[in-house]
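Q: I'm writing a short methods note and want an example of a predicted protein-small molecule complex. Could you take the sequence and the SMILES for calcium ion and return the bound structure as tokens? Please keep the output block clean; save any remarks for afterwards.
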Amino acid sequence: MVRWIGWLLVGVLSWGFSGQAQAVMGLPEVAAAAAWKDPHALVAGTLVVVGSGPHRWGLRWVPAGRFQMGSPADEPNRDKDEVPHEVVFRRGFFMAETECTQAQWQAILTNNPSRGKAPDQPVNQVSWHDANDFCRRLTQTHRAQGLIPEGWEWSLPTEAQWEYACRAGTSGPFAGDLAEMAWIESNSEGKAHAVKTRKPNAWGLHDLHGNAWEWCRDWYGAYPTNSVQDPTGPSAGTFRTYRGGSRIYGARRARSAIRGAMTPELKGDYLGFRAVLLPPR
Ligand SMILES: [Ca+2]
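A: Understood, no commentary inside the block.
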């Protein structure tokens, strides 16, 4: 499970890329105030925008529901730890439509730890602890600015939340045409790319496959084999999880079900995160 540590320690610089954001057709947008009042009435993929400029966060609603987590035994190139099991979400949540960008990070914490400075690219060189601290600070800042109500909270997604949102109703290895959706080894030229420059999934979420790997909240551990509700992973462990592949690896490691795990202190040029905004319980 530590087989991917090596690449994280290798530096790759990227300069000068600028892409065009691709619009998401057919998904509604609602005002934040309306969304906070009755989020669970929103349809999947509804866009809510919080803040503006470097403080802008585009969020997509991920509704309550159920899905098959992990991969079926006949999925090509699967790993054994992707044990299929049903996951039930009793409550929906918002997920940021992009990886956390360097601009979003810098707007909250003022520094930018990334290798390869570019405001519209994923922040990198952040440990699991750094990513959690960022989410905590983002919650404090947005509450103080009146951008989110009391009780709402930014967080790293659980592995289950991440995979459910990534799949957006799909059950195959990828949530669509990978070549159109992802910056991976075959098309990235080894460079980091601006977020939101590949096609999104059915719920309007970009770059879950590829570009930067994304920290998740859970400790790494074996999946259950039975149906579970709102899973949060093991109660303790050694490694934290991360998901989605990156620009320097191929399609196999960008699959919806593939799992990564490493010590929470490690940082890498290809590893960032994506935040979720959780409604009050
Ligand atoms: Ca990603």
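A: Remarks, as requested: Residues 99, 207-208, 210-212, 214, 244 surround calcium ion (CB under 6 Å). Residues 61 and 94 are 5 Å apart (CA to CA).
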